[in-house]
Design a protein that fits this description.
about 190 residues; alpha+beta; Aminopeptidase; 8-stranded mixed sheet; binds coenzyme A
Length: about 190
């Protein structure tokens, strides 16, 4: 379990639990169909089904996805962060996340989730490169990545269709080398 300290208390990141998910399924479907939460990503293009969830669980069982659930100080599930798209030869993975409860945005939670997931990826899983692609308009995600030392390395021109127009995808990455340099500089 990882902890993220904020001005409004301590949030916890715990490994994905099917029991928690099952108890909060209604909330999950609301988040995934909420225009505000899905404004900058592909969630919500197709309504999520029970089969989608089963496929997600299966991917976790097969170690294709590593997912943590984010809990607020009241113990309520509010979001997830995942490492996925693993390449076990090149030792790379994608990082992805969402916080479904928008009242929790802007407290540093995405920044903390990225930090903890990267620490796990580099220091426990021996990965070499973590990458993320996000909409040109998703300034919150871009800043959370940049605050963790991610570098913008390119643009997929018109890689997405969002809110009635094509949008560029900004691509970011962090190498274990960058991670170690930042740690040494922080000492
Ligand atoms: C994007 C998202 C993960 C950001 O989470 P968050 O917990 O609010 O991010 P943080 O609080 O760590 O913010 C990081 C920085 O971005 C800023 N920020 C957050 N949201 C912002 C926004 N909408 N516009 C501009 N800046 C924003 C914060 O103020 C902070 O900067 P600061 O430290 O200089 O004040 C969250 O808004 C979310 O879950 N959105 C819906 C799903 C999504 O877009 N997922 C990412 C898909 S790639």
């Amino acid at each position: 379990m990882y902890k993220i300290e904020t001005e409004t208390g301590v949030y916890k990141l715990k490994p994905f639990s099917y029991n928690v998910f099952e108890k909060n399924m209604t909330k999950y479907f609301e988040w995934m169909n909420c225009p505000k939460v899905t404004k900058f990503n592909a969630h919500g293009l197709f309504a999520k089904t029970a089969e989608d969830i089963a496929a997600w669980i299966k991917a976790m069982d097969k170690k294709e996805v590593l997912c943590w659930m984010l809990f607020n100080p009241l113990g309520e599930w509010i979001g997830v962060v995942s490492l996925q798209s693993f390449n076990w030869i090149y030792r790379t993975a994608e990082i992805a996340m969402w916080i479904g409860d928008s009242t929790e945005w802007g407290k540093g939670l995405a920044t903390g989730m990225i930090y903890n997931a990267c620490q796990h990826a580099f220091e426990r899983m021996n990965l070499n490169r973590i990458w993320s692609g996000t909409a040109e308009t998703n300034r919150g995600m871009q800043k959370a990545l940049e605050k963790n030392g991610f570098r913008k390395e390119g643009v997929f021109r018109q890689g997405m269709f969002l809110s009635g127009r094509y949008a560029d995808i900004f691509c970011y990455s962090l190498l274990v080398r960058d991670w170690n340099e930042r740690k040494a500089a922080a000492k």
